[in-house]
Amino acid sequence: MFFFFDDRQTVPTLADIIPDDLRAVxxxxxxxxxxxxxTDRIAELREGSGPIAPTAVYGWAAGGRPIPGYVAPMLARVxxxxxxxxxxxxxxxxxxxxxxxDMPKPLVREPRGKKPAEPRLEN
Length: 123
Prior knowledge:
This protein is mainly alpha-helical. The chain is 52% helix and 0% strand. The protein has one domain. The chain contains 4 helices and no strands. Helix 1 (19-30) packs across helix 2 and helix 1 (19-30) runs parallel beside helix 4 (71-101). The termini are far apart. The model has no long low-confidence stretch (mean pLDDT 83).
């Protein structure tokens, strides 16, 4: 079962994080090519503790390696950052949609060599 946060919940403990959760967070935030981006983000969040081998995250996601205790709060941060990024992108998309919607329709000429379509009579 995937975990969700609200104001009453705390970051889950290691026992609550399973490989499916890791995959779900990665795919939700980064898309289908999530492994490398999640690896890089966890390395950033470790603040100077050194890089993480991409094979470590692949192993966690496959269930072949235990998920370290420091990963759960980092997944919470990844989700928060992902939510903020989606909100920002949604705002941009809505602004663009309004701008495009308000544009006048372009004048389109009839294709060369074709007769204009006859108006249809509705029955």
